[in-house]
Design goal:
By secondary structure, the protein is an alpha+beta fold. Helix content is 30%, strand content 21%.
Length: 216
């Protein structure tokens, strides 16, 4: 949508990449504010997460990642120490996990579209980049922060389900009418037969989140 206005003044590629990051962060923050959420922003550039989102008194640690491509969103923390000096220094990039944040807000800097993804879903997928096929269920699902019903409340939404015992997870899945298949796998690409094979517990956690998101 905004491709024609991209880098009109011709800023160098390296600097412009940084600018896109800041622009995406500002877009995501603006979208959250439009929803009515209160946000507290990081005071230090290299803080573990970018913001804290307040949803009716429940605080969520939020990491913001932007993309300007049509491929997907990179979902890693850390980087390459000494990167500007030596490109052969070992990378410290790791897939985002629950120790980093509670949710990822992905934003497309050329359109302002957002994806609100529980970080434990990213942790289970274990991929450094999530394509838009995998991200589709989470597109514009800002209501997840205030999701609350008789079975699942805001504390579940904040903490996730992976820390629960397997039997507890199976009970929640049963109450949500989730039936276990013979194989615990998830399709990862729209136009191919690529699948991610999971353990039963991981598969159930993903399905619980997908069920929640389908009701937003």
């Amino acid at each position: 949508m905004w491709e024609k206005s991209k880098n009109l003044i011709g800023i160098g590629e390296g600097n412009y990449r940084s600018i896109l990051g800041y622009a995406g962060e500002s877009l995501a923050i603006g979208r959250a504010l439009i929803c009515g959420y209160n946000l507290f922003f990081k005071a230090w550039r290299d803080a573990k997460y970018d913001a804290v989102l307040d949803a009716e008194g429940i605080l969520f640690r939020v990491e913001i990642k932007q993309t300007s491509t049509d491929k997907g969103i990179t979902v890693v923390s850390g980087g390459r120490s000494g990167q500007q000096i030596n490109r052969e220094v070992e990378s410290r990039e790791e897939v985002l996990s629950r120790k980093d944040c509670d949710f990822l807000i992905g934003v497309h800097s050329m359109s302002g579209k957002c994806w609100v993804v529980p970080v434990e879903v990213i942790e289970i997928f274990g991929k450094k980049m999530l394509n838009f096929y995998l991200l589709e269920p989470f597109k514009e699902k800002w209501k997840v922060f205030i999701f609350d019903n008789q079975l699942i409340n805001n504390n579940h939404i904040k903490s996730g389900f992976s820390q629960l015992q397997k039997e507890e997870i199976k009970t929640i899945a049963k109450d949500l009418n989730i039936e276990s298949p013979d194989e615990f796998k998830i399709k990862t690409s729209e136009n191919s037969n690529r699948y991610l094979c999971l353990e039963e517990k991981e598969w159930l956690v993903i399905q619980i989140w997908l069920k929640i998101y389908s009701n937003l």
